[in-house]
Structure formats: structure tokens, C-alpha cells
Write a structure and sequence with these properties.
Elements lengths: L15 E7 L4 E6 L4 E5 L4 E5 L8 E6 L4 E6 L3 E6 L4 E6 L4 E6 L5 E6 L5 E4 L5 E4 L7 E7 L17 E7 L4 E7 L1 H5 L7
Antiparallel strand pairs: 1-2, 2-3, 3-4, 5-6, 6-7, 7-8, 9-10, 10-11, 11-12, 13-14, 14-15
Amino acid sequence: ETTTPRAILTGHDYEITCAAVCAELGLVLSGSQEGPCLIHSMNGDLLRTLEGPENCLKPKLIQASREGHCVIFYENGCFCTFSVNGKLQATMETDDHIRAIQLSRDGQYLLTGGDNGVVIVRQVSDLRQLFAYPGCDAGIRAMALSFDQRSQEPQASYKEEEAMLLLTGHYKGTTIAVSPVRREHLECPSIGES
């Protein structure tokens, strides 16, 4: 039995480099090699084009939250946060070669990891650094977040999510689990805050 695509999303002229789905809002985000990033409905309708600042042309990583935030990391080291309406909300540059990004369940916090081996927690709305985990001797290549799936109560915000696990994969072949990621990591800036 063959399956047929639910929708074919068009609008890019170059190969796709990143994609994200926000099922809660019915949105698909995608970025292509020469930009821009596009927002489609799950039915395939092109809704918005996300245009970053002039120097942000090649999207590399993208995440979307159910609260309507879109975070894009560009090849030149620039992060941009957009609303789903296409409004640019914040920009920030980093000198780390970022390889992985994740959003907290409530969409308020961005976790980033890259070649310097440090996981940084940022506020999504302004991309301000809130916390930096102690670095590792190997660059981060992948990252995953897991939330406590055993809880029967709906969790409205990250502040209630005490049982969150952060998993990072490194280029030397190691995997590191940090558990739990605690609320105080997000509320107290670390030394060396940028």
C-alpha cells in the first residue's frame, strides 16, 4: 500500500537546510540554502516569509513553539526570533559554531550547543543569556530535551517542569545527560553572562 503526501510545500528556490513543525498551531517552517525561511500551513498554503537582517541569508537551524515563536540560527552566527506573524523580535550574534538548538516545552527558553561544548540557556523573547552549563572537552553535535511523561497533570509552563532531562551528543562519541534541568538555572544568570 502506498501513501500519498498530505501536502507539497512550495516556495523555495534552493535546497532545504532546516525544517520544524508546530502541530499545535498547524504550521510548518522551513529554510533553504540561500534563504529565506517560510511558514506554511499543514495544508501547504504559504503564509509568511521570515526575512532576517541583511546579513542573515543562510538558515541552518530552526525551531518553533506552540506560543508562536520561531527561532532561526543562520550560518553567519546570528540568531533571530520571529513571531509567527513574521515580526522580527530579537537578534543576537555568537562566535560559537552552533550545531544544535532546542526550545523548552513552553517556548520561553532556548538551549543552544556548539563547538565550544557549552550548553547555553537563553530567553527566547530577547535572546538574553540566562545560564551556561559547565563546558565539556568536546563540541556538541546533537541535543534533545525530554519532559516527565509520567505526570498526569498538564504542565502549563516550564516553571512546573522540574523533571526535564537534557541530553547532548558530542563529536568524540560521548553522550551526556543532565537531569534535572532546574528552574533556578533559568532565573540566575551565570558568571560570564553575555
